[in-house]
Amino acid sequence: MLRTLRRLGYGWIALQGLLAAALPKQVVGLSTKLSLSGFENADELDPKPWYLTAVRATGVGLIAAGLTGLLLESRDDNENEEPSVAIDAPESDEDA
Hints:
single chain; mainly alpha; 3 helices; 68% helix; 0% strand
């Protein structure tokens, strides 16, 4: 259950990053509407170009973080299967 929730979280982070990298102006507009819903004329605010660049860069970082998390989760699945290896070690004098 916890592993499924972590995977969903990593996927959500990657999706948010993809949207922020591809559509930074729309993401900023949506977050402005949501966070400034109690203010008048919040729709008339325009972000500066440097801010849109920062949002795009943050989106690329979110994509990298989400995909890395998903890759590590799938790698953990493969590592949890412990191989059975028979090791025959000779007994030492101390064990006897």
